[in-house]
Amino acid sequence: MKIVFDFGGVLFRWHPPSFLARVWPHRAPDEDAGAAIAKDFFQAYTGDWGAFDQGLADADTTATRIAERTGWPRDEIVAVMNAVPQELQLIEGTAALIAELKQAGHTLHFLSNMPVPYAEYLESSHPLDEWFESGVFSGRVKQSKPAQEIFDLARSAFGVDASELLFLDDHPANIEAAQALGWQAWLFTTPETAREELVRRGLLAA
């Protein structure tokens, strides 16, 4: 079994409502306001941000498009975008789970919707090549989850049949897409529940 990790919300912190409440307090004074603003800012990772995720638009273009669409000052949007790397803090429990899986002899990969600048930041800040045998960033393949194309690209890159892949992701739509293509998949909520599931599947010792 090859185990495939999503990044945002799984290995690295990514929670837009609290993120926006921290970095944009004059617009998002609390998480409820942050959640509402996130819908316009990130568009559920479609639209302007989706193009950024897929490497079809660079950061400058994306900031301009968001400003034109929303009326928010462009410099404020740039400040939010520049703050994203620091939001992507390592989730220590997941890092420990990765170490345990590797110690148990499992091969790990990643499949992440991630714009190229943030992918480069993560590569420079963390030993991804030590943790994972290989991985796919959406910004580099010009496709993003939950589209079938990125799952097909990933399966080919990982060099195994879909049924041999167990995918951990925190978005139900991505889990459903993977399962429809024959992957095994499980909805990630916390490192602790993920470990329980891996034990249940016989991939880790209790």
Automatic annotation (TrEMBL):
InterPro entries: HAD-like_sf, HAD-SF_hydro_IA, HAD_sf
CDD domains associated with the record: HAD_sEH-N_like (cd02603)
Name of the molecule in the record: HAD family phosphatase
SUPFAM superfamilies in UniProt: HAD-like (SSF56784)
Entry-linked Pfam families: Hydrolase (PF00702)
